[in-house]
Amino acid sequence: MSTDPDTSGLLRSILPPKRLDRLFDLCGAHGWKLIGAGAVVGALPPVFGLREGYMMTVLSEMFLFAILALSWDIVGGQTGYPSFGNMAFFGIGGYATAILVKDAAVSFPIAMVGAVVAVLVFAAINGLIVLRLRGHYFAIATLGILLAIQQVTRNLDITGGASGKILFDVPPGIVFYYFFLAVLVVEMAVVYYLTQTRFGFILNAIRDDEGKATAMGFNTTYYKTAAWMLAALFTGLAGGAYGLFNTFLDPQTAYNGAWNVELIAMALMGGTGTVAGPVIGAFGLHTIIEYVESSFVGWQLVLLGVAIIVTVIRFPKGVVGTLRAYANEMDYYERGGMAATDDEEVTTDE
Amino acid sequence: MSNTPETDDHAATATADDTVLRTEGITKRFGGLTAVNEVDVEVHEGEIVGLIGPNGAGKSTLFNCITGTLTADEGRVTLQGEDVTDWPEYKIARAGLGRMFQETRIFGGMSVRKNLLLAAQEGGADIGGLLRRPDDSLMERTNELLEYVDLGGLADTRAGRLSFGQQKLIEFAMELMAEPDLLLMDEPAGGINPTMLENLIDYIRTANDEEEATIFLIEHNMDFVMEIADRIYVLAHGERIATGTPDEIQNNQHVIDAYLGRE
After folding, report:
1. Do B53 and B85 fall within a single domain?
2. Where does the signal sequence lie (chain B) (predicted)?
């Protein structure tokens, strides 16, 4: 298994590490502008006539998955707690909105507020319990919660049981296109800002060595729960809109375990612990999945499995992480040292 | 210093209100094994106190009971006059206890600079502090400390890429940044080369002289501990067998016997 970035002569001549490192510095320094530019570019297709149809749906779903992958990464990548249960927030958000809109006849925006409250309460309660677990135990516990909440939903009348809920009189597709885009932009801005704050540093510290973080005076359960709730907030918002976007919600769709794996794969492929990585991964993998679904029906899960295996073996740092490791080789050039992998030590100052 | 194990006359001469750390009758058992047995220690403000003993003497277990990593079965731990025996680890740390680990623990996925920024206490735990970006004064102090430990050029390098010795310096710089009331150091001299060891001695001395840092350290390197410590406690088989100045400890028959396996 190799984590060594591509050191071929071709890549080196096209994009020398030093130039890429400068590009990363530039992106880091102008993050706000990049997010703003992304928002503008994302808003353009409907302006130029793409207001409905297949492409509109695909683009909306790309934004949706980017929200989900970035939300997963707040806890899975930034904090080091890989969850298999994020779709529970998605489902609760979806059902809360659907029930409020259909049964309580409230407007979409008010229903979203209700969905957010429901998701945050759920996340706070289960976060304080499952976030005391670590590693495999945490992963299995979150999967257990997802399956349990799916089963509970299947047995309730208010949720429509196993048949689910069909939603009529939903807003047009363009509303959801802009809604998903707006949530994604806000989420990227929030995560980008947090990575520069003490709160963001603490999450990264928990990821790297939770015992040391505790020994430094941080009540890690408190910070993990805050991160968990932040992830739940954005996932719940996405779920809340998805029910109406899809005009139908059932337990299988709302608490989709395969989607949970998919969004983990997206974050891994793009690069965990970064702002851009999960978004890039979501756009890339969803595009591939859409292509495979339309051209090779039934093979999308096979592709997903292959993509995950190739990623974790060949590019465990994902697209962004691999490029960053390659770019950081300049550290060694400047010290007159040899090119080295990211896992080797710098010993020149000793 | 007599050879009587329980004499603690040096600690007794200090005034009561400058006691930073006091343990009284700390006992910790693991099943049938008593790892620490009724150990009393005191560390006073501005002191460097050593804790030595053969392998398995209970030194790290005592440290773990002090920091709250382990809960003592019996006894009390007082930090700055406050009983912290049953406090959780993070709360004891926040009350002013810093710790450097034997195996060196820093946040390898973060840059060297972020490691230090994280250690600064100014940010606190309130929402405002948590959601603020580091201000100029904090960045300046971080840069100064990194220059001080000769790691200024590596501020933006991922900390996990540095050598063991450099990581040890980062951990020490983090504690300087945090300015704890008491710093526990578990084998600070372990695994580093002689040049860096000399530097580390200088850094610890300077922190003690100029910043009045109070330090309680475990060490197996006898030259190091005899050179740097004001007082030394000796543990063997979980019990405190001696205390005194480095000169006194070197001539203490109980200590010599313990290290030669006669006790």
Report:
1. yes
2. none
Cross-chain residue pair A209–B106, CB shorter than 8 Å: yes
Name the pTM for this structure.
0.89
Domain of residue B141 covers 107-179
All residues of chain B having their beta carbon less than 8 Å from the beta carbon of residue A207 are: 109
- The b-or-e profile of A234-272 (16+ CB within 10 A means b, else e) is bbbbbbbbbbbbbebbbbebbbbeebbbbbbbbbbbbbb
The answer to whether B154 faces chain A, any CB pair under 8 Å, is yes
Q: Assess contact for A276 and A270: CB atoms under 8 A.
A: yes
Tell whether domain A9-334 is in CATH 1.10.3470. Answer: yes
Q: Give how far the C-alpha of residue A243 lies from the chain's centroid of Cα atoms, to the nearest Å.
A: 19
pLDDT recorded at residue A335: 45
Do B141 and B187 reside in the same domain of the chain? Answer: no
Q: What is the CATH number of the domain that holds B18?
A: 3.40.50.300
What 3-state DSSP class applies to A333?
A: helix
pLDDT tens-digit profile of A14-35? 888 888 888 888 888 899 999 9
Domain range summary for chain A, segments of one domain joined by +:
9-334
Listed range (A30-39, A163-172, A340-349, B174-183) with the worst mean pLDDT: A340-349
